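Our preliminary data section would be incomplete without showing what the modeling component actually yields. Below, a chain of 84 amino acids is followed by its predicted structure, encoded as tokens that our downstream tools consume directly.
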Amino acid sequence: MPASVTGQGDGVSWSRIFDSWVFVESGIHAMFGVDISRVKVRRTRSWRWFKARLAGLLASDTALARTLAPQEPGPQEPVETEFS
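Predicted structure:
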């Protein structure tokens, strides 16, 4: 299995995706109308199919994308300097 969804090592790790599985299932159902909790669906869809939908979830404003988004640093306080 690739280290990350992007395959480049700088994307979201599969471990983090599996830890957020509820958002994967609900996101694919909401966005694509497919219930991946059904065994028949999982057996008839390819890994490529799943990875493409997952990339779509991560690229859109979804609960999964918000959960896995890197935390952006907050605004920094200005540094006071004293010049003589």
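The two ends are 60 Å apart (CA to CA). Residues 4 and 12 are 5 Å apart (CA to CA). Preliminary results of this kind motivate Aim 1 of the renewal.
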